[in-house]
Each structure stands twice: as C-alpha cells, then as structure tokens.
Amino acid sequence: MNDRESNNACSGSRVLMMHHHRAARATQFNIPPGICPQKALQERESRINKQIDARMKDLATLSMPDEYRVKAEIELRALRLSNFQAQIRNEVMHALKRDTTLITALSPFAYRRTKRQSLREARVTENLERHRKIEAEKKRRQEAADRLQHIMEHARRFREFHRSNANTLDKTKKAIVTYFLNSEREKKKEEERKEREREKF
C-alpha cells in the first residue's frame, strides 16, 4: 500500500510540473483581447442614439392622418427630451449615492447650505422685510376701509328703502282718509238733497 501511495504522489507531482512548464513556455500566438465593458456600453449608447435620430427623422418627415399626428408629436417630443431625462436620471442617482453614504446619513449638517450673510445682503433683506410689512399693513387698512365703505353703503340703502316704504305708507293712509272723508261728505250732501226734496212735496 505504501508503494502505491508513493507512486501516486510522484505521478501527481510530475503532472503538476508538466503544467508549470507548459504555462511558462513561450508561444507564437498573442492572447486574444477580452471584451471591454466600457467600450461595449459606449457602442450600445451610440447604437441607441442612432436609432433615436432615425426615428426622429421619420416622425418629422412622415405624413399621416390627424388622429395619428398627435401621437406622433408626443413621441417626437419625448425622443427630443431623452438626453434631458438621462441627465436628470444621472443627477438623481448621484444625489442618492451621496445621501446614502454613512457620513451624510449620520450628519444632518451635510444637508445644510452654510452661507455667511454679508452686511449689504442683511440690509437688503431688512429693507425687503420692511417693505413687505408696509405693503401688508397698507393692504390690511385698504381692506378695512373697503369693508367700512360697504357697511356704510348698505346702511344708506337700508335707510332709503325704509324711508321710501314709510312715505308710500303715509301717502296710502292719506289717500284712504281722504276717500272716506269725501265719501262721508258726498253721503251727507245726498241726504240733504233728498230731505229738501221731501220738504217740497
């Protein structure tokens, strides 16, 4: 058993030595270059951009009925905005990577934009704040004056309405009193006339 194990060990070491010699041996053929992922990505982007350009040219020069023209216009505008969408996507991904790191996640001050305000900017801000307060006060006073004017106008119309009603009521009462007085007078005259006629006969 021991002889067999030693023979196996020797044959294994020989095979290993042969592989080392073959690996170190110079060859006439160059090692084929591997696929560069960056170059493959650039070629893919270039191919997609060419397809987008071709589709945009087709949509711009294509004549179609009215019901399909709106869809074609929407697709054309979407293709024109593809670069802008890619830029926004990259900015969002960059912001996500920056904000999800351990340093910025633990530091709330990383999200604050520290800016020292100069004396000139402080004066400008103060003037703007004062101007805003003056405008707000002026607006509040104008609204109060308009409200008071509206109330006074309503009170004037209210008084005129009731004065007109009172005048109408007075005229109606006078007309009724005059009617009854005239009726009584006419009735008396008629009775006196009949009395005189009876006395004649």
Structural class determined from secondary elements: mainly alpha
Instruction: Please give the number of β-strands.
Output: 0
- How far is the N terminus from the C terminus? 186 Å
| Helix residue percentage | over 70%
Instruction: Please give the radius of gyration in angstroms.
Output: 53 Å
Strand content: under 5%
Number of helices: 6
Average pLDDT metric: 81
Largest sheet report:
none
Assembly status? single chain
Question: SSE order, as H and E?
Answer: HHHHHH
Q: Which regions have little confidence, pLDDT < 50, spanning 5+ residues?
A: none
Shape, please? elongated
Structural account:
- There is one protein chain.
- The chain has six helices and no strands.
- With 201 residues, the chain is an all-alpha fold.
- α2 packs antiparallel against α3.
- It starts with a helix and ends with a helix.
- The mean pLDDT is 81.
